[in-house]
Amino acid sequence: MKNEKPAPIIVGAEDGESISMVGDTYRVLVTGKQTNGEFATIDMLIPPGGGPGPHAHADFYESFYVVDGEVEVKSEAGVYTAKKGSFITIPKGGIVHCFKNKSDKMAHLLCTVVPSGLEEMFLELGTPVEADTFLPPPHLDPETLKKFQQTAERYGQQLFPPDYLD
Question: CB 3.0 to 4.6 Å from 99: which of 40, 71, 109, 130, for a disulfide?
Fold first, then answer.
């Protein structure tokens, strides 16, 4: 008798595509293509000063577990310093949020999005890199910023100016 059940998805310690995204390095562990669109998981290394700018997404949950280090999480609801062991969930609905590593040590986050899709935006906009390789944040001239905004919108995201939550 043949087993018709799906096999576990196993990703080795060095496996998964690594990309540089706004100066951070993300390793895509599991994609929506592997989970029938149900979720995706991304391993994120955020150097000091790193992190995405303010953004919002109405149609998916985004959760972070702080594996190591700490990040400042800002949203329209307030500010929280998430330290090692903290768990943050950004609910559906479109609240504007961002996070930044304000420490002098690397922050390590595990991000899961439900349903998937965000990882596809990262793969489209990011630059492939070797694991643990960091590129400087790109210069966001008007043309690059427009490309980022248009691509983000295709993936259900809205981008806001860097000082939007100040």
Answer: 71
